[in-house]
């Protein structure tokens, strides 16, 4: 059976291939790669039976499952679809247009000072093994998560961060959300990741940080209460036991 492809068909194939590649990366980061392979296998059976070998009965049965399966896929992959839309609409190329209308842009020294305040606070809490979870908003608004905690809207300050996460503080168990260069809310509740690949030695803070990075583009910084290690969750992946210098570099690069 001879198959002929036009330019439009080739473009369609390339677009689908790119979408599948990005979906593959999301599945890999979120620990649902086996589910991704199962979907690909089902699509392959449908194409082979219906389009190539012209097996009408088998193809029709599989085709019925495909029509229902689209709804099922939306339910199963809702977090991944959300991250895919975030990827399309929140890339750095739109930042240029936003800056044209921003009249009160802080200079680099002020931004670096805010980053270093967080780095110094994390270093101090790491030494005393004080658990902490700090979320930095990027392009995706975090208002829904801010409202789960206590709104304080304060300047970023080393002593304030340390006091909030002090073990006897009533707000130390939740997450701190930093947005628009200010501490917006503390004691916030975050979505927890159910990734089975997370080491069992990591606690709820790490799972919450990873879960937040899977559904938004936020940068999440964790200080372990057990080991004092500093970790960062971003783009659905977790980097553990990083140095203060690495933390400074990550925050400075991501929050430009």
Beta-strand segment tally = 7
Radius of gyration, taken over Cα atoms and rounded to an integer in Å: 22 Å
Shape: elongated
Q: Which regions contain 5 or more consecutive residues with pLDDT less than 50? A: 91-97
* Neighbour order of strands in the largest sheet: 2-4-3-1-5-6-7
Write up this protein.
The chain is built from 10 helices and 7 strands. Strands 2-4-3-1-5-6-7 form a 7-stranded mixed beta sheet, sandwiched between helices. By secondary structure, the chain is α+β, with helices and mostly antiparallel strands. 54% of the residues lie in helices and 14% in strands. The radius of gyration is 22 Å and the shape is elongated.
Task: List its salient traits.
7 strands; alpha+beta; 256 residues
Topology, pairings included?
Blueprint: H1 7-30, H2 33-52, H3 56-76, H4 78-89, H5 95-100, H6 108-127, E1 132-136, H7 143-146, E2 150-154, H8 158-164, E3 175-179, E4 182-188, H9 204-215, E5 219-223, E6 230-234, E7 237-239, H10 244-254
Parallel strand pairs: 1-3
Antiparallel strand pairs: 1-5, 2-4, 3-4, 5-6, 6-7
Helix pairs in contact: 1-2, 1-4, 2-3, 6-8, 6-10
Short note summarizing the structure:
This protein has 256 residues and is α+β, with helices and mostly antiparallel strands. Helix content is 54%, strand content 14%. The longest helix is centred in the N-terminal third of the chain and has 24 residues, at 7-30.
């Amino acid at each position: 059976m001879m198959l002929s492809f036009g330019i439009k068909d080739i473009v369609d194939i390339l677009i689908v291939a790119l979408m599948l590649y990005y979906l593959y990366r999301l599945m890999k980061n979120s620990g649902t790669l086996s589910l991704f392979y199962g979907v690909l296998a089902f699509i392959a059976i449908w194409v082979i039976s219906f389009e190539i070998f012209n097996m009408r009965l088998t193809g029709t049965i599989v085709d019925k499952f495909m029509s229902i399966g689209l709804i099922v896929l939306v339910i199963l992959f809702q977090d991944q679809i959300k991250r895919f839309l975030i990827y399309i609409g929140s890339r750095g190329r739109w930042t240029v247009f936003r800056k044209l209308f921003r009249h009160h842009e802080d200079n680099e020294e002020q931004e670096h000072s805010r980053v270093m305040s967080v780095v110094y606070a994390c270093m101090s809490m790491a030494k005393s093994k004080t658990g902490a979870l700090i979320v930095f908003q990027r392009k995706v608004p975090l208002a829904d998560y801010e409202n789960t905690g206590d709104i304080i809207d304060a300047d970023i300050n080393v002593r304030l961060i340390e006091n909030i996460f002090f073990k006897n503080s009533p707000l130390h168990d939740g997450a701190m959300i930093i947005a628009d260069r200010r501490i917006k809310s503390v004691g916030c509740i975050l979505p927890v990741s159910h990734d089975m690949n997370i080491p069992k030695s990591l606690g709820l803070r790490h799972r919450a940080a990873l879960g937040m990075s899977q559904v938004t583009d936020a940068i999440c910084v964790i200080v372990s209460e057990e080991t004092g290690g500093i970790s960062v969750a971003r783009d659905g992946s977790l980097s553990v036991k990083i140095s203060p210098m690495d933390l400074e570099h990550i925050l400075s690069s991501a929050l430009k």
